[in-house]
């Protein structure tokens, strides 16, 4: 809208080019204001209709967690910044700082304490004592693709608000069956210039890398919401899941092959799921990484940027997730994804396995896996 701000007795009024004061919502670039009947910008907690909104002292609308008095409220960007009806007590934030991998005896002790184990019949129980439903590698990867192209990267997304270092917990969304409608709503409102640093810890709006993998695992092994969760530090996931007996662990640098379903953890704090490897050694993967949950491809080990995986990932994102691809077309990742990650490879047969592979995905390349899961490129 054309016009200018005019200062009147320490307050600011927006006047249009014809000299008339404006009313209602005003958008200037990335800033949103609300103008009262006199055209002045409002500040603080304001009721508009049946909803409450919050504006800074300079009139710019605020989103996210805001402390008002002794209570903290959530002002939801997916609902135009309206205040959620729930009062949120924020004790802290998820600890996502890099940590060293836990030793095997610590993993074993933690599993025993949480009763994460197989019983004599081969049934596996989560950290709340529920028996999980065993699944297939195909269902695991199909589930991993559900949030693709509609879920933004949120630092702390998938973590419970106030989760502390000693008691990591997944958010409600991380233990809920299905893709949260809020995730796609927030994606549709997010611009091409989206910067996750402006939305840290708004955990209901999207997923970070570990929140994403935790959500995938929960939705793979459960048919009802509210059981145990699988959210933990990204760098610990591969080794921890292997310690639970789900598969075999390989430290970074000790392997050169990748198979569909491999869970890959970076000591510096990232995790991804392998969709398949190409004949040139590059890998197609799915993960939550700025800008969000998407299929990407690595370069080759020699650094060739136009690798088979990069081209394949771009084709599939463009064809099957066009709205996302138009905003965020970058589908390439570097050599560190091939060299710096530890690996958990699923045990796919035997009594003590949580995944099976009747479809034979383990022996497929990236192109074959994507064709099976999504369709032709």
TrEMBL record:
Superkingdom to which the source organism belongs: Bacteria
Pfam families, per database record: Choline_bind_1
Keyword field: Repeat
InterPro entries: Cell_wall/Cho-bd_repeat
Protein name: NlpC/P60 domain-containing protein
């Amino acid at each position: 809208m054309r016009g200018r701000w005019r200062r009147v007795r320490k307050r600011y009024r927006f006047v249009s080019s014809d000299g008339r004061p404006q009313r209602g919502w005003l958008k200037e670039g990335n800033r949103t204001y609300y103008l009262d009947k006199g055209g002045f910008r409002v500040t603080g907690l304001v009721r508009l209709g049946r909803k409450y909104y919050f504006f800074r002292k300079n009139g710019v609308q605020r989103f996210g967690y805001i402390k008002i008095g002794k209570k903290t409220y959530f002002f939801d960007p997916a609902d135009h910044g309206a205040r959620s009806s729930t009062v949120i007590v924020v004790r802290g934030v998820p600890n996502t700082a890099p940590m060293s991998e836990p030793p095997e005896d610590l993993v074993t002790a933690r599993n025993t304490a949480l009763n994460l184990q197989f019983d004599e019949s081969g049934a596996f129980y989560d950290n709340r004592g529920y028996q999980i439903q065993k699944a297939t590698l195909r269902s695991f990867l199909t589930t991993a693709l559900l949030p693709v192209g509609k879920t933004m990267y949120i630092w702390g997304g998938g973590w419970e608000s106030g989760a502390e270092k000693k008691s990591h917990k997944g958010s409600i969304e991380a233990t809920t069956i299905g893709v949260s409608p809020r995730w796609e709503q927030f994606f549709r409102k997010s611009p091409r210039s989206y910067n996750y640093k402006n939305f840290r810890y708004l955990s209901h709006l999207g997923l970070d890398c570990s929140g994403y993998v935790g959500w995938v695992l929960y939705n793979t092994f459960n048919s009802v919401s509210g059981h145990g969760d699988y959210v933990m530090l990204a760098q610990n996931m591969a080794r921890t899941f292997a310690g639970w007996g789900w598969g075999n662990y390989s430290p970074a640098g000790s392997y050169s092959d990748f198979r569909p379903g491999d869970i890959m953890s970076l000591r510096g704090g990232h995790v991804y799921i392998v969709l398949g490897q190409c004949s040139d050694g590059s890998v197609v993967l799915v993960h939550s990484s700025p800008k969000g949950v998407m299929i990407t491809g690595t370069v080759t080990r020699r650094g060739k940027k136009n690798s088979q995986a990069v081209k394949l990932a771009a084709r599939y994102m463009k064809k099957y997730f066009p709205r996302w691809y138009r905003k965020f077309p970058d589908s390439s990742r570097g050599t560190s994804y091939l060299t710096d990650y530890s690996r958990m490879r699923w045990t796919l047969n035997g009594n003590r396995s949580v995944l099976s592979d009747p479809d034979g995905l383990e022996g497929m390349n990236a192109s074959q896996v994507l064709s099976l899961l999504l369709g032709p490129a």
